[in-house]
Amino acid sequence: MNTIALHIAGQHHASATTEWRDVINPANQEVVARVPFATRDEVDLAVATAKTSFKTWRNTPLAARMRIMLKYQQLIRENIGKLAELITREHGKTLPDAEGEVMRGLEVVEHACSIATLQLGEIAENAANGVDVYNIYQPLGVGAGITAFNFPVMLPCFMFPIAIACGNTFVLKPSEQDPSSTMYLVELMYQAGLPAGVLNVVHGGAEVVNMLCDHPDIKAVSFIGSTHVGTHVYRRASEAGKRAQSMMGAKNHCVVLADANKEQAINNLIGAAFGAAGQRCMANSVVVLVGEARSWLPEIVARSKALKVGPGSDREADLGPMVSKAALQRAEKLIQAGVDEGAQLLLDGRGHKVAGFEGGNFMGPTIFSGVQAGNSIYTQEIFGPAMCVVETETLDEAIAFINANPNGNGTSIFTSSGWAGRKFQNEIDVGQVGINVAIPVPVAYFSFTGSRASKLGDLGPNGKQALYFWTQTKTVTARWFAPDDAGSGVNTTIAMK
């Protein structure tokens, strides 16, 4: 069993805490690691280390930072297999899915390799007589990141690589449920040549989160996780005078029109709903069948029933276990609520057992039809392998139904009509839109743009918005007088002369 350490000043730091949590393999309940909940002194030390390191790191040339990122992306690429194994062991998702997660995280690191051009400023020469005005993008100082369990590699990559590339230093608090892959990601960062103290890691729960939100030396906080925690983080960090962003919960919809490529649509919507056992904030857990597409429901159920449930280490498995017993019990409770509230349970995945892994947190694909907007299975994020099917007569009804939901993280439409796709993207009030793409997580050089209750903060991760979030824009207005320039007297107006 592995004892997880903190990571401070470029070294593993054994915690003095008395509070530990077991990290459990969700496929068999084996305790695979123990993670410490950092003390206040340890959080203060991590922040102080980052603050000290900022004094030199901020002045490290752009090209030098870029070379470290280039080396880092190479090391990640060389260690995809190991990172994926660590993800699968502690999270439970299948190895192919874990490998895909690492690749999506790698995209962000590759984007950070462009920092020498991303961080270029802007200039207007001779804006007034002899006056130049220009913007420069300077690092903020110490940043902090708080990530959820469901993507222990990709979500940290949404945060610290671009923050560090911009010249900031960083304190990361990964999920305590599956920290080993995150810790290995940090080790690779230092192998790439990152100076000691630029990236630090503390572990813990709500108390550590509050310490990071309150700490006066932290300038910006990025969060990805549940709406409840994300709202708390955003408010607390903002009240402490910090820049904050929270990417939060969702209830994503996949609209299917009858003119869609049927095979592609069904395969994609099933994968989007049940992949990673539904534990994705971008999972399309609500399928809206429009018009004649409603007749496809029996085939959707039959194909879903045929999916293989097994341990993530089984490359033939379509979905692995849920991350914890508590997560499984919560999903099962919501499914029972759906039954009690009158939705039709067409496929029940509760009580699923896998031979040789009888203790695992397994749930099979679950499908409800006749779902109403007031049902608990619709108003709450189940975060399990459960699909809610809604039926409408028209695309307009589908759009209105989605826009009435308080969340706005992601949505998709499957159609062969360019008119319908364009109408959908224009009228839908959701941050990420997919057209014949079931999980529309944008590539890293575009920003992650949830909306409404799914996002707090004007700037999201990745793309140009990440640069703006992790830097302070400084505008300089400069005039240089010739040695013999006597000027034209005192100017008491605001006009430049």
Low-pLDDT parts are none
Give a count of the beta strands, DSSP E runs of length 2 or more: 23
User: Treating each run of at least 4 consecutive H or I residues as one helix, how many helices?
Assistant: 17
Note the overall shape: globular
Give me the side-by-side strand order of the main sheet: 15-16-17-14-13-19-20
Give a description of the structure.
With 497 residues, this protein is α/β, with parallel strands linked by helices. The chain has helices at residues 40-57, 62-78, 80-91, 95-112, 115-118, 154-157, 160-165, 180-191, 206-214, 227-239, 262-274, 297-305, 325-340, 376-379, 395-403, 418-427, 463-469, and strands at residues 2-3, 6-8, 11-13, 20-24, 31-36, 122-128, 131-139, 142-146, 169-173, 199-201, 218-224, 243-247, 253-256, 286-290, 344-347, 366-369, 386-392, 407-408, 410-414, 432-435, 451-452, 455-456, 471-479. The strands form 6 sheets. A 7-stranded mixed beta sheet has the order 15-16-17-14-13-19-20, with helices on both faces. Helix 3 (80-91) runs antiparallel to helix 8 and helix 11 packs across helix 12. The longest helix is centred in the N-terminal third of the chain and has 18 residues, at 40-57. The termini are far apart.
